[in-house]
Design a protein that fits this description.
With about 400 residues, the protein is of the alpha/beta class. Helices cover about 60% and strands about 10% of the residues. The chain has three domains: about 10-140, Glutaredoxin, CATH 3.40.30.10; about 215-300, no CATH class; about 305-400, Serine Threonine Protein Phosphatase 5, Tetratricopeptide repeat. A six-stranded mixed sheet has the order 3-4-6-5-7-8, with helices on both faces. Strands 1-2 form a two-stranded antiparallel sheet.
């Protein structure tokens, strides 16, 4: 737990409990109950910002640490809103998350004292960017219903875009797409690349089985043909198509966009684009250049310095090899080392599952069954592990 001389934030079972954070002569109230936040909102005449998080979510933890230690963050809270932090998926956090259609962590929902949504977003990338978001959201903080009413009277790109963003973050992807297109029609010369936003809706919608691969592919081509698209847009499409192809089991979705996006951004000096290119370089070597040896070398080079000592890093590398069907013998060795380093429970179970998959691919399904039994023993309540055990038992029975 992070502490300082001037304040303390108490976290219990993944929930930031009610606390007053003192910064100089100012104070920022953080509560764990939405009802208490509503009462404080009424008293202070400030909106409420509910942060839905998880102890297992890196950006969530970073946000909580900033709340506890960063004077700039404390000033932002004090001046702009009542902060209600709901961590976890059970109890009040889970129930309220369901009411507001929260499917990602972290998620932030700005609302009034009655609990009506005014704005929302699903990311945290540091205090500076967080403050920029607050500066965009709070000054024009009106409820969605009021924004609809205002739009009916005086349609603007800004309101259409805001409604689209809110619906997007509520996972109402089809409605969001319609509003993004409405925003674009209201200002065809807008600097905003709405085609990329629309693609993101199709991408997430495909993962939720709302859209099919044809919808996603069509919009991906639109982004590549959009004059406003830049290198970051191209690589974002590449990333999304990689995820979609993995979910749908169709690498053909990914390959043409990997080739085009990777080659089109070859001269980019944008830091994020360069990092994205580095992460997909092994896929480019394997899928486009058919060079498995180079792909494995690039994947290893992309790992952190101490990755061989980290259970999750070893598991991630072994899983990549399994998915790509390359370097499987070494991948099995890395998975075994990861199992040795892993904490008991879910982490060890996950790596046992990776090794079971590798063994199954290499024709050792009997060992896969034994490994999944160990995984179930590590985490008996894990439904996925139970399903995997049943699956491998059925494969083994079919081989006899």
């Amino acid at each position: 737990m992070v502490q300082s001389k001037t304040f303390r934030v108490i976290m219990l079972a993944g929930v930031l409990t009610a606390a007053v954070l003192a910064v100089g002569t100012a104070s920022a109230t953080v509560v764990e109950s939405l009802e208490r936040a509503k009462a404080e909102s009424e008293r202070s005449d400030l909106p409420i910002l509910v942060k839905f998080g998880s102890e297992k979510c890196g950006p969530c933890v970073e946000f909580d640490e900033a709340v506890a230690t960063d004077p700039q963050m404390q000033r932002i809270i004090e001046e702009n809103f009542v902060l209600c932090v709901l961590n976890g998926y059970e109890g009040e956090a889970g129930a309220i998350g369901d009411v507001y259609s929260v499917y990602q962590r972290p998620s932030f929902v700005l609302m009034n004292a009655s609990g009506e949504t005014m704005d929302r977003w699903n990311w945290y990338a540091g205090v500076e960017k967080f403050e920029n978001q607050i500066q965009k959201s709070v000054p024009d903080a009106i409820t969605v219903s009021d924004r609809f009413a205002r739009f009916r009277t005086e349609p603007t790109e800004e309101d259409a875009s805001k409604i689209a963003s809110i619906r997007h973050n509520e996972s109402l992807f089809a409605e969001a797409i319609a509003w993004y297109r409405r925003a674009k029609s209201l200002n065809p010369d807008s600097e905003e690349n709405y085609e990329t936003q629309i693609f993101n809706c199709y991408s997430y919608g495909t993962m939720f089985n709302i859209f099919d691969s044809a919808d996603l592919t069509k919009q991906a081509h639109v982004v590549f043909n959009e004059p406003k698209s830049n290198d970051k847009d191209y690589m974002s499409v590449v990333y999304s198509m990689a995820k979609a192809s993995g979910k749908l089991g169709d690498v053909a979705l990914y390959k043409p966009f990997l080739k085009k996006g990777y080659e089109m951004t070859a001269n980019s000096t944008h830091e994020k684009v360069m990092k994205m290119r580095e992460s997909v370089a092994p896929d480019y070597a394997l899928l486009i250049k058919n060079d498995a040896k180079k792909a494995v070398a690039l994947k290893k080079n992309a790992q952190s310095e101490d990755w061989m000592k980290d259970a999750n890093s070893l598991n991630n590398f072994a899983w990549w090899c399994f998915e790509k069907r390359v370097n499987l013998d070494e991948a099995a060795d890395y998975a075994k080392k990861g199992i040795e380093l892993a904490k008991p429970g879910t982490q060890k179970g996950n790596i046992l599952d990776t090794l079971a998959e590798i063994c199954n691919v290499t024709g050792e399904c009997g060992e896969s069954v034994d490994l999944m039994r160990l995984a179930v023993a590590e985490d008996p309540d894990n439904e996925y592990f139970q399903k995997q055990l049943t699956r491998f038992e059925e494969v083994l029975a079919a081989q006899k």
